[in-house]
Design brief:
This protein has 3 helices and no strands. It has about 90 residues and is an all-alpha fold. It has 2 domains: about 45 residues, no CATH class; about 50 residues. Helix 1 crosses helix 2. The radius of gyration is 33 Å and the shape is rod-shaped. The mean pLDDT is about 90.
């Protein structure tokens, strides 16, 4: 669970200064603290999350480079095979 700095005493004091009862102010302060903790746990990325994404991007980049080489080589070989077939066909026909 992510820890946050949230001054519940100051929050509840402001509520009591505004006319809220002490019990209500303390309950609202605790609820606010829990709510903020849940938001941080579910919606913010940690350093480990960012690190995992960077590692995955690095792997994907390497795989993309390899794929480009493989596609380029396949195209070159296909062109070579097609030109050989054309030469053979021309020798047979002529």
């Amino acid at each position: 669970m992510t820890t946050i700095t949230f001054d519940t005493l100051q929050y509840s004091k402001k509520l009591t200064d505004a006319g809220a009862s002490q019990e209500l102010a303390e309950a609202m302060a605790e609820a606010q603290k829990v709510s903020l903790s849940e938001i941080l746990d579910t919606q913010l990325a940690t350093k480990q999350d960012v690190q995992k994404v960077e590692e995955q991007l690095a792997k994907i980049t390497v795989e993309m480079k390899l794929t480009r080489w493989m596609v380029g080589l396949s195209i070159a070989l296909s062109i070579g095979v097609i030109s050989l077939l054309i030469k053979i066909a021309l020798k047979i026909l002529l």
